[in-house]
Design a protein that fits this description.
The complex is a heterodimer of chains A (334) and B (302).
Chain A (H helix, E strand, L loop, with lengths): L4 H4 L13 H41 L10 E3 L2 E3 L9 H8 L3 H34 L6 H8 L1 H4 L2 H12 L4 H8 L11 H29 L3 H9 L4 H12 L1 H16 L3 H7 L9 H11 L5 H28 L7
Antiparallel strand pairs in A: 1-2
Helix pairs in contact in A: 2-15, 3-4, 4-9, 4-12, 7-13, 9-12, 9-13, 12-15, 14-15
Chain B lengths: L1 H13 L17 H28 L21 H9 L2 H32 L5 H12 L3 H14 L6 H25 L3 H9 L4 H12 L1 H17 L2 H6 L8 H4 L11 H32 L5
Classes of the chains: A mainly alpha (334), B mainly alpha (302).
């Protein structure tokens, strides 16, 4: 029916001659595609129930003043009805330009952007550097590779606690710095150093993924290209600039997008590193969580509104990123 | 392993020596300095990668909860007491059970539901294809904050808060689209000719999928399964919020419970952390090579 043949002959919707009437079209489309629709049906169903419905419901909540005191809840045997009311777009207005909007939203927004940019840049450059080193003929490189992947292999919620022990007051890091007569910052108390520590820990966690993916990309570059470049007298830098980087382009665009999404949504590192103690080091995701679940009364409506805003930011970013890639005639590998 | 490193520098010592002055190096040959620098950087990087984990292991051997402040004292009183305490006196095995139930549940449901979809989007073009792919992509980047509030409300209405099923459902909302993506990537690498051969021999599309493609796609399924498992196992936000009973905690929540406002049993926490990390990372190393191919080289040309 549709399967591979469809692709093999390169038939597309447009090649089908005159456009039949709507009823006929529906029937034909049903006959032609019902296999495909039957196959995607389970996922469509799951997404509808588990994603679309909660999303719609969440969006509705953002238009209300719901919090843990006025939503439906059960205390013992008593069931209390929901009493929150519809307030339109007030939540969004309040978040974006209400009083103290800067402290509540924009400061976190700026920090989130800085955090994402810094982390992804560090992940990528360090990952690329290590991948280049590992791509050489070098004795023991399998061994290095195994060790370097370790931060990825151990679950984040475990390693973050390891870091917490190291960063704590009187922990090994400050003892070491003191022994070297360097300043010993308050990693977990001072805002600037909290942010610094968060970026450091997240970089440590995220480099292995980049390294391994880019190493895969490097190994798939045709080695004759390097030979040709050398014959033409290209030096090491030129080979890197004109052979390696273009060869990595499709892997890079994919891992950078994944990195941006993951870092922007990174919850575990900041939540586990600071808990509720660092209001200024919270990125938007953890801040939204704090509003909805980390305080009393829980402000469900605002938290959900943050969620919708975050999703909007990510969708806008991804669309532009894709468009930008398309303009440069690249395809995303995901 | 350190011996190989030493040997390397020894051989590298001799290699460039015969090169007469003015002779250019052969392809792939590097100067001694280059080799040493590479080894130097890689060693430093390896130490940085290793240290926080090694430190955790080291601290887990100290018997007192403030030993992390005086690590030098641990040498003299090293013991496995923390481990036996964790295994015998805490809810470790309850947590293990919860973690396994939730992660395996998510994995099984995710892979089962997503398999046919991965195949469909890999092989067929149907009206709405692009929109569907877009939805799959977008659901993967949902921040936790988007679904948490409505999910909490819905699950409390259904009385699924503090149940494994509730948590599995929540995890499926990300695992299912992700598995579909990963598997599409793998199915794309299986030649279309196989499908065509099956179709010519009279199999229906479902038959082609079940009898020909699915057996070939086992590594792809394994990667998707493994990825959902790891994600569900390490998830923090939902588990922290939706699980209330400390016997139902997953590891990600249980580990936090060692440090409360009043007390911090860091030695026990370190021991638990090590106990969790060992099997998970061993498992990870077994499959990591496939994982990376699945994650990146995957989809090609959406």
């Amino acid at each position: 029916m549709t399967v591979a043949i469809d692709r093999a002959t390169g038939k597309r919707l447009g090649d089908r001659g005159p456009w039949p009437g709507p009823v006929q079209r529906l029937r034909r489309s049903y006959q032609k595609y019902w296999y495909a629709y039957a196959m995607i049906a389970p996922v469509v169903l799951v997404l509808g129930v588990l994603v679309l419905y909660p999303l719609a419901y969440g969006f509705y909540l953002t238009l209300t003043d719901a919090n843990s005191l006025n939503t439906a809840r059960t205390i013992g045997v008593n069931e209390i009805e929901a009493t929150y009311k519809f307030i339109g777009f007030d939540n969004y207005a309040d978040i974006l330009w209400g009083e103290t909007a800067y402290d509540r939203f924009w400061s976190h927004f700026i920090w989130t952007i800085v955090w994402t940019a810094a982390c992804v840049a560090l992940h990528y450059t360090i990952g690329l550097g290590l991948a280049l080193l590992l791509n050489q003929k070098l004795r023991g490189r399998t061994f290095y590779r195994l060790i370097l992947v370790l931060p990825w292999a151990v679950p984040t919620f475990v390693t973050v606690f390891g870091w917490r022990f190291m960063l704590a007051d009187g922990g090994i890091l400050n003892s070491g710095l003191e022994a070297l007569h360097l300043p010993t910052p308050q990693w977990l108390e001072d805002t600037f150093w909290q942010r610094f520590a968060a970026i450091m820990v997240n970089t440590w966690c995220g480099v292995p993924f980049m390294m391994v993916s880019l190493l895969g990309g490097l190994q798939s570059i045709d080695s004759t290209l390097y030979e040709a470049a050398e014959m033409d007298g290209a030096n090491a830098w030129q080979r890197f600039r004109y052979v390696t980087l273009p060869g990595l382009r499709s892997v890079s665009s994919t891992v950078v997008l994944l990195g941006v999404i993951w870092t922007f949504n990174q919850f575990a590192v900041i939540f586990l590193l600071f808990g509720n103690t660092a209001p200024d080091a919270q990125i938007l995701v953890t801040w939204a969580y704090y509003l909805g679940f980390g305080q009393q009364p829980r402000d469900f409506a605002q938290s959900a509104a943050y969620g919708i805003l975050l999703l909007a930011i990510l969708i806008v970013f991804t669309s532009f990123y894709r468009r930008w890639l398309n303009r440069n005639e690249q395809q995303l590998a995901i | 392993m350190s011996t190989t490193t030493v040997q390397k520098s020894a051989t590298a010592d001799q290699a460039p020596a015969p090169a007469a002055p003015g002779r250019t190096r052969r392809r792939g040959e590097r100067s001694l300095l280059g080799t040493l620098t590479s080894h130097g950087i890689l060693t430093v990087a390896s130490l940085i990668a290793l240290f926080p984990i090694a430190w955790l292991v080291f601290l887990s051997l100290g018997p007192d909860k403030d030993d992390y402040l005086h690590p030098e004292r641990i040498w003299s009183k090293m013991t496995f007491d923390n481990y036996s305490f964790v295994l015998q006196e805490t809810n470790f095995f309850d947590w293990l059970k919860s973690s396994l139930v939730v992660s395996l549940g998510t994995t099984v449901i995710g892979v089962l539901i997503a398999a046919t979809t991965g195949y469909a989007v890999s092989r067929m073009r149907f009206p709405g294809y692009k929109k569907f792919m877009w939805v799959l992509l977008v659901t993967q980047m949902f921040p936790v904050a988007v679904l948490m509030v409505p999910m909490y409300q819905i699950l409390s209405e259904l009385q699924l808060i503090d149940t494994y099923l509730g948590l599995i459902l929540v995890y499926c909302s990300t695992a299912v689209p992700y598995c579909a993506w990963l598997m599409k990537g793998y199915f794309d690498t299986i030649p279309f000719e196989i499908d065509e051969a099956g179709r010519v021999d009279g199999l229906s599309p479902f038959g082609t999928f079940l009898r020909l493609i699915l057996p070939l796609a086992r590594p792809g399924l394994a990667v998707a399964a493994f990825y959902s498992f790891i994600t569900a196992f390490g998830e923090v936000a939902f588990a922290t919020t939706f699980l209330l009973d400390d016997e139902k905690y997953t590891f990600a929540v249980g580990l936090q419970s060692f440090v409360s406002e009043h007390d911090a049993q860091r030695n026990l926490m370190a021991a638990t952390a090590v106990l969790i990390a060992i099997p998970v990372s061993a498992f990870f190393y077994l499959v990591q090579k496939n994982l990376v191919t699945g994650l990146t080289a995957g989809g090609t040309k959406g």
